[in-house]
From TrEMBL:
E.C. number: 2.2.1.2
PROSITE patterns, per database record: TRANSALDOLASE_1, TRANSALDOLASE_2
Reactions that this protein is recorded to catalyse: D-sedoheptulose 7-phosphate + D-glyceraldehyde 3-phosphate = D-erythrose 4-phosphate + beta-D-fructose 6-phosphate
Enzyme class: transferase
The protein, known as: Transaldolase
Length: 356
């Protein structure tokens, strides 16, 4: 078992003393995807193996929705068959949702396959049903790491994805202290970003497109990429992290159009779905830097949002109705897809038993 004693450690930020600098020269490249790869680490937002082979990203990230989509491909049946076999060997431990453990093994099987293709890391998500339980999230994360270790995977090639609730952030803090890197997902508010950084999160995934969705509906209008509220949120977080020397990686995620991606060129990491990867690859227009480490421009005072700042966190987060709505909606949707995945597993198991 991957276990170590957890300690609570708050990250102490120091303001940057490095002067700001102009953007680097525009990269010379055959297309925008190639240019973007010179500015940011490009991550594939998919669980589909064909996309990994075609677009050759550095890292890969998945979630229950992407695993569920990938399982529509008959090629993935072998991963499910093996997951069921592995849990049968363990005796199918009973629980409120007995197929949840098979779903864990399935996610690890797919993640292990992706790690045979990408040179970097894969993100695997903790069951969203546990998003408001720090202890259960911590235990589930350790279980996922154990499953990967049994597959011969070095934990340093993993990110454990956790919803950026207060409880999820506290689980992240314990896991990071044990050397398990976390990818904090469903991040919508500046308060969430501050708290994740103070918890020492390895990486955050602010959701650009879902922020845009909320504002379009609330304000009954469209937004050009340069005024996109999701883009503005990521730029604010990026500048804040660089100003106060946080080491947490900013990985922009959840895009609705390629224009949003272009507006964030230079962000630490960018995770992109296959259709938008294809669109960027087809464009030969110039792609200038929009973000770079020494750009300056942070307008926020440092916000201490460590484990002692629970009330401060909620006061700040709850002021942002968009963030409150989208966080809960994201947890609900991932939970629903997790249940669909478990139902699919149950149907496959019944079919197997009927053949025996």
């Amino acid at each position: 078992m991957w276990r170590a004693r957890a300690r609570v450690v708050a990250y102490v930020a120091e303001p940057s003393s490095t002067p700001s600098a102009p953007p680097p020269p525009e990269p010379k490249a055959a297309n925008q995807l190639e240019a973007l790869r010179q500015m940011s680490k490009v991550v594939a937002d998919t669980g589909e193996i064909w996309a990994m082979k075609e677009y050759k990203p550095i890292d890969a990230t998945t979630n229950p929705s992407l695993v569920l989509k990938a399982m529509q491909d008959p090629e993935y049946a072998r991963f499910l068959d093996d997951a069921i076999y592995q849990e049968r060997r363990r005796g199918f431990p009973q629980g409120i949702r007995p197929n949840a453990l098979v779903a864990d093994q399935l996610a690890v099987n797919i993640g292990t396959e992706l790690l045979n293709i990408v040179p970097g890391r894969v993100s695997t998500e903790v069951d969203a049903h546990l998003s408001y339980d720090a202890g259960a999230t911590y235990d589930k994360a350790l279980h996922l790491v154990d499953l990967y270790v049994q597959r011969g995977v070095d934990p340093k090639r993993l990110y454990i994805k956790i919803a950026s609730t207060w409880e999820g952030i506290r689980a992240c803090e314990m896991l990071q202290d044990e050397g398990i890197d976390c990818n904090m997902t469903l991040l919508f508010s500046f308060a969430q970003a501050c708290a994740c950084a103070d918890a020492g999160a390895a990486l955050i995934s602010p959701f650009v497109g879902r922020i845009l969705d909320w504002h379009k509906k609330a304000n009954n209008r469209d937004y050009a990429p340069e005024e996109d509220p999701g883009v503005a949120s990521v730029k604010r977080i990026y500048k804040y992290y660089k100003q106060y020397n946080y080491h947490t990686v900013v990985m922009a995620a959840s895009f609705r159009n390629a224009g949003e991606i272009r507006q964030l060129a230079g962000c630490d990491n960018i995770t992109i779905a296959p259709p938008l990867l294809k669109e960027l690859e087809a464009s030969t227009d110039q792609l200038p830097y929009q973000l770079w480490p020494r750009m300056g421009g942070c307008e926020d005072e440092h916000q201490r949002m460590d484990y002692m700042a629970r009330d401060k966190f909620y006061a700040a987060h709850n002021e942002d109705q968009m963030a409150v709505d989208k966080l809960q909606e994201g947890i609900d949707n991932f939970s629903a897809d997790q249940r669909k995945l478990e139902d699919m597993i149950g149907a496959a198991m019944e079919k197997m038993e009927a053949k025996q």
